[in-house]
Design brief:
The radius of gyration is 31 Å and the shape is elongated. It is built from 9 helices and 2 strands.
Length: 296
């Protein structure tokens, strides 16, 4: 053997390679990506970390024994420490921005203006003119986009974060989903549909159906993707409670809207019946035919 302690020599060699070669490469790649687009930066960080972990796994298979925990710590913090320090805040902030932009684009496209304090001013036409309620009140495209971006964020967090950091990030991501879809999009849709005076009488009921369908998609993401990662963490109770509270608020709005909708249906039916004229029931030919008598 050339070295008295080959493991120590290999460890020092790897540290030098990481500090002198890989560190510069990683920083250059991420700086270039960050100058272009935040999404590109997050994706580049994700893929570089995957490649670094593949390198770690390959090194642990060498005949020279290297402590895997040392490799993980050295690679993660020597190469990505500066970027991981603020990663959760950056990831969640980017997701919130994407959600806000998606909602803003939808609201602008259908003429809904939201102001601070929850004030809503809508210029939705009083005649749907072929548009379905989900196109004017609750958009399946908005929900799909928010959930798609959330899945991407969760995928990156699973790769880049550990234990408590991961649980914290998943809580923030789930809160973002609830805030943008349930507290904002669905609530706005239910409020506007309950007050809508034009088009079919059952518009509110159709909007409730659309909301319910998209809530099932949120439940599916939570049950299949988020919950398995946090089920043993204290943060699971927070997520379940927040979800329960949000659904109760939506149920309350639906009940209020249903009462309005039913009252509107009854008032419309009453108005139609009052406007009916007796002549509407007269036969077209003059005279009322006599009924024949039944022979005994």
């Amino acid at each position: 053997e050339v070295f008295d302690n080959p493991e120590e020599a290999m460890t020092k060699f790897l540290q030098q390679v990481i500090d002198k070669v890989l560190y510069g490469h990683v920083n250059k790649e991420l700086e270039d990506a960050g100058d272009v687009d935040k999404e590109d930066y997050l994706q580049k960080l994700y893929h570089l970390h995957i490649r670094a972990m593949i390198l770690r796994d390959s090194l642990t298979k060498l005949e020279t024994k290297i402590d895997p925990s040392f490799l993980t710590k050295t690679i993660r913090y020597s190469l990505f420490g500066d970027h991981l320090a603020a990663y959760t805040e950056f990831e969640v902030g980017h997701l919130i921005h994407k959600c806000h932009m998606t909602l803003a684009d939808f609201y602008n496209s259908v003429g809904i203006q939201k102001k601070q304090g929850g004030v809503i001013r809508a210029t939705i036409p009083q005649n749907l003119s072929g548009n379905s309620p989900e196109e004017l009140f609750v958009s399946e495209n908005v929900c799909t986009s928010v959930l798609f971006e959330s899945r991407n964020s969760i995928k990156r967090c699973k790769e880049l974060l550990m234990d408590r950091e991961l649980s914290h990030a998943l809580r923030e991501i789930f809160d973002t989903i609830l805030d943008n879809l349930c507290a904002d999009h669905f609530t706005t849709a239910l409020e506007l549909a309950a007050e809508y005076k034009g088009g079919p009488i059952g518009v509110f009921l159709q909007v409730v159906g659309c909301v319910n369908k998209n809530i099932h998609l949120i439940e599916k993401l939570f049950r299949e993707i988020i919950m398995p990662l946090i089920q043993y963490a204290p943060i699971a109770a927070h997520c379940n409670e927040r979800k329960r509270e949000m659904l109760l608020k939506l149920e309350s709005r639906i009940e209020t809207g249903m009462e309005r909708s039913v009252s509107s249906m009854v008032a419309t039916l009453h108005s139609i019946l009052n406007n009916q004229k007796k002549t509407d029931y007269r036969p077209e030919e003059p005279g009322i035919p006599e009924t024949s008598q039944v022979r005994q």
